[in-house]
Each structure stands twice: as C-alpha cells, then as structure tokens.
Amino acid sequence: MLAGLTEPSAGQVLLNRVPWCELDSKRRKSLAYVGHQNALKDGLTLGEALSFLASLQGLDSPRDRARHALDRLSLGRHWRTPVRHLSQGMRRRGALARLALDDAPRVWLLDEPLDALDDASVAGFAELVDHKLGQGSAVLLTSHQSIPWTNCPQLHLGGEGRRP
Amino acid sequence: MSTAPIWWVVARRDLTLSQRRRSDGLLPLGFFLAAAGLFPLGVGPEPQTLRDIGAGVVWVCALLASTLSVTQMFALDHQDGSLEQMVMAPGSLVALVLGKTLAHWLISGLPLVLLSPLMALFFGMTGASTLVLGLGLLVGTPTLSLLGGLGAALTLGLRSGAALLLVIVLPLTVPTLIFGASAVSAAQAGQSVQAHFSLLAALLLLSLAGLPWASAAALRLALD
After folding, report:
1. pLDDT digits (tens, 9 = 90+) for A98-136
2. Can you list the alpha helix ranges (DSSP code H) found in A57-156?
3. Do A38 and B1 touch (CB under 8 A)?
4. For B195-220, what is each residue's pLDDT tens digit?
5. CA of A116, closest CA in chain B: separation in Å?
6. What domains does chain A contain, in order, with CATH numbers?
7. Predicted ipTM > 0.90
C-alpha cells in the first residue's frame, strides 16, 4: 500500500504531502522499493538484470550505474554470472543493489531486506542504509530478524500484526 | 545522455530472455506446425478439399499457437517481483504493455508469418493465396498478441488462468479469424482482397487504440 501498488480502503498515502496516486513520474523517482521478491530474472546475468532495473527507472548510463551499484554491494565480480547460478544471499544482495543505482530516492521502502543475508552482508547493507540516512533520507523496512540499527524508531508487532 | 524508451527496454529484455530459453519460443511454433500439419493427413490428399480448408486451418492454428504462448506474458514477471518494479517505474504502464506485446509478437507472431508459405504448401495453395495468407497473418497476428495481452492481464494470478484466458480471448479473436481466412478464400476465387485487409487493419488500429490501456488497468487491478 505504501508503495502505491494497492489502494487503501480508507485514508491516503502521502509523500511530501502529495497523495501517491497524484505523483508525477519525476516525483515517483523519489521512492525506491525492494519487495519480498528479488525482481531479478533467472535468465539474465546479474549485470543485465540490474541494468534493466536502472533503465526501467529512466536512469541514464544504466550499465555504468549497475556496475557501480554491484561494486558497492561487493558483487562486482558476478557481473556476468547468470542470476540462476547465484545463492539466495547473493540474489538478495543483487536485489538490494538497486538501491545504490541512484541517489535521488529520498524514501526507501524495504520488505524483509535482510532475508538470506549473512552477517557480513548485513553489515555491508547497514553501511548503505547509514549512508542514506546521513543524507537526510528516510528508510522504512520490515524484518523478522533483529536489525543492526538501534538508534532508529522501531515498531515490534506480534502475531496477526498486533503489538505484543 | 538520453534514455531508451520504456517499451523498448522491456521488449529488448524479453527478447534476450527468449533467446536464452529458446524452447519457450519454439513450443508454440512446434504446436502450429504439428497441428496444421495433421490436417492434410486426417482429411486426405484431395487437393481441392485441402485448398478449401487450408486458410481456415492455418488461421485457427495460428490463433491457438498465439494464445498458447500469451499465458506467460505477465505471469513470470508477477512471480519474481519484476512486475511490481515495472508498475512502480516512472514510465507509462501502457508503454510497458506495448513493449511486452511487441516482444510477444516478435517471438510468437512473426515466426508464424514466416512459416506461412510452408503451411500454404501443405494445403496446395497458389502463389497469390500464399502471399495473401502471409500478409493477412502479418496484419492479424499483432491483434492476436494485443488481445492475448488483455486476457493475460485479466487472468493474472488466477489459479485456472490459462483456461479462463482462452474463454476470454478466443471469442474476441473471431473477427480477425473471419477476415483473415476469408481474404485467402477471396484470393483463391480471384476476387479483390482489399476489403478484407482494410477490416484487418481497422481491427489492428482499434486494438492498438484501446487494448494497451485496458491491459494496463487490468494489471493494476491484479496487483491491488
């Protein structure tokens, strides 16, 4: 719903005080979303898959951006590796690399970003998030795992979305 | 630096994927060849009978082959989360649907057009009839891809989506089937085919003017 994929049955989702459904294409670029699925095609190489996501965002030089983003997530050497040959953790990092494609998004919406990541990958991702937060941006994420940020607001939900 | 239009970005990716998974593209083509090729064996070798039924058989087989391949147009992107990214992208969803449809036609429709002379040979068609069959498929198969795209979007995420897609799409393809097949019949009878081609072109233009928007709306509903 926050990503604008589902209409709320009541209320509104506002981004900078503008309802999501009224955002023009330029303003939509201010939100980046990584869902539960990785959105990486098994039949493409990691470089091709990420370049496609960059092109989809209308970014210039998509290949250069994809290469840079993969380097930031320590996946640069897998540029030519087909996605189907990557482990679950690498695929998840590849999906998260799309966040490093562009500095423009001011809001990140992340659904279970730490899924299948090992401790080193979580630390690398934490650095990426810290860098983003340092720019004055907002990151909203859901996770079933403990998250490495202790100085940010957290809402703990129990079964069926209720506060324990 | 200018960026590539979204329809081309999506079409190019689908073409790359198809090139890597050739079996997916060859399956409808194999179905088309096998299904149309069985008719001369079943009906018998009488040349006049084959010429009479040829156009109809080829068009029906082309229609079924096109529908067979369209079921996956959005389903795989839906499964792996790519569709969410596409819908959220700043570009137009209609342009995205057009890109997917273009790729589907290039992968599944154009090969049928290129194979039509072989099919015409199976059914003993004359040179003029073969040309009309090929041109008819060239104008008609994009309409089939556009209609299939709407069906694929409407049935996205449903359990028995493939069967429902056939029920939705096949009745809508009847006008294209009628004018495409009757153009060949008219050519065989030595009559003008201009009216048939005008109607096929009109159907294509109408489909282009409306179906991508309807498919985009159906995709949004499917993700809601």
Report:
1. 988 887 777 888 888 888 888 888 888 888 888 888 888
2. 62-72, 88-96, 119-134
3. no
4. 999 999 999 999 999 999 999 999 98
5. 16
6. 14-161 (3.40.50.300)
7. no
